[in-house]
Structure formats: C-alpha cells, structure tokens
Amino acid sequence: MRRLRHFLLLAALTLASLGFAPLPVQAEQAAPAPSAAAPAKAGDPFRLSIGLEGSGQAGGQVSVAVQIVIVMTLLSVAPSIVLLMTSFTRIVIVLGFVRTALGTPSAPSNQIIVGLSLFLTFFLMGPVFDRVQKEALNPYLDGHITSVQAIDRASVPLKEFMLKQTRTRDVEYFLELGGFGPTAVKDLPMRVVIPAFVISELQTSFQMGFLLFLPFLVIDFLVSSVLMALGMMMMPPTVVALPLKLLLFVLVDGWHLVVKSLIQSFIT
C-alpha cells in the first residue's frame, strides 16, 4: 500500500509537471471559521453544501470543489501516463515476447503478465519513489516548500531515471524536432525526455525479445527437419515442439533468468 500511495502521488506530481495541475489554493483562502457559521439545531437534518465560487477567493481563481474534481479526473488517466515513464513498458513487452516464443498464447494470462510487470515496476522504481517522497512530498506536506518547488524537486529523480535508460540519439532527435538547440541535461524539458525514453524502451525491449526467440526458433527448425526426414509431413511441428520448448524453459529456470535479466538491464 505504501508503494501504491507513492505511485499515485507521483502521478499527480507528474501531471502537474506537464502542465495539467489546477491552480494552487492559498492558505488564506480557506473557508470561514466554524464559529461564523450559523449554529445547527439538534433537530435539523444533515445538510451538505458545495459552492463553486469559493470563499474569499480572488477573481479568476478556481474554487476548492472544482480543483478536487479536476484532480480526481486527472488521476484517472495518470496511471497510463506514469506507466510510460517507468520500467513497466520494457517489462511487460519482454514478458509478452516470452509467452509468444513459448507458443502458449494464453499461459500465463494477460492478468498475470500485467500484474507481475506492475509489481516488478514497484520494486525497481522504489528508490525513485522514496526520493520523491523525501525530497518533494514530505517538505511540501510540512509546509516548508511551495507546490511549484515540490513539482520541480519531484521531477528530478524521475528525469534522472529516464535519462539513464534513454539513448542519446533519441534525446537529440526530439531536441532538434522541438527546436531547442543545445541544452544541458539538467535543463531538458519533460516533453522531450518522455518520448525519447519511450522510444528507447521500445527499442531495448524488442532487442531482448529477439534474443529470447532465438533458442526457441532453433527448436522449431530441428523439429521440422526431423519430422520431414521421417516422412511425418502431416504432423504439425508445433505439437511436437511445444513440450520440448517447455522442457528447455523449465530446465534452465527460464522465468528466473528472464526476470533477472530485466532487473539487471535497469540496474547496470
């Protein structure tokens, strides 16, 4: 639950860094004190009032109720955005390639693949989430920094993680495409880092998928050649190759090797 809370908080901060966050609410714009409100009678029913104009807010400010609605709406799309900025993309693609190479399209199921990828993402992104909480979230909740400073501090660990996994040519391409010119690493905008990171992750995951397919492809060739030499042309090669693939995968402890390779690809 702690990792999930950090994940949702990181989603909100990420959306804010991309320019989707609502306007911050000032401390002096809080609702009137309870003493100013009319005293409730014992027999009055429970009442709930929601106002859109805010209390004592300056012109053009969005009320607290509207900001809550905006935040909840953005959080519904935040997972899809944040998952593209973490290790989830590479993990889920590689695990999908493993399933396809084995020739078992329904085992493991999509729910298991996505669930395993999600928890491996929480494991790998744990240090990043901890830095966001320590450097940005906790000081902001304690009132030591403003929301703008919290957003700037929260984007630093995430940007460092993405740039570590991003190819230089991809960053340079999007810089050139956006007309930024030579830019220091610390000054790279998120709208350049994010697409470059996604493209690099797709390239890396497909390279790992190609290497995973090679041993299983050799088994398919051998089975097809043996069946043809024996004159068993009516026997589907996949029927004979599938148990051999499963046997090889189990003997070499395939899932351990795949997960180990995925984790090491982010750590090294």
How much helicity do the residues have?
55-70%
Number of extended strands = 0
Beta-strand content estimate: under 5%
Structural class: mainly alpha
Largest sheet: none
Shape: elongated
Radius of gyration equals 26 Å
- State the distance separating the first and last CA atoms: 28 Å
Mean residue pLDDT = 76
**Unreliable parts:** 19-38, 52-62
SSE succession: HHHHHHHHHH
Number of helices: 10
Descriptive account of the structure:
The chain is mostly helical and 268 residues long. The protein has 10 helices and no strands. The radius of gyration is 26 Å and the shape is elongated. The model is unreliable at 19-38 and 52-62 (pLDDT under 50).
What are the defining features of this structure?
single chain; elongated; 268 residues; mainly alpha; 0% strand
Overview in brief:
With 268 residues, the chain is mostly helical. It is 67% helix and 0% strand. It has helices spanning 2-17, 64-83, 88-102, 110-124, 126-141, 147-164, 168-178, 190-229, 237-251, 254-267.
How does the SSE layout of this entry go?
Layout: H1 2-17, H2 64-83, H3 88-102, H4 110-124, H5 126-141, H6 147-164, H7 168-178, H8 190-229, H9 237-251, H10 254-267
Helix pairs in contact: 1-2, 1-5, 1-6, 3-4, 3-8, 5-6, 6-8, 7-8, 8-9
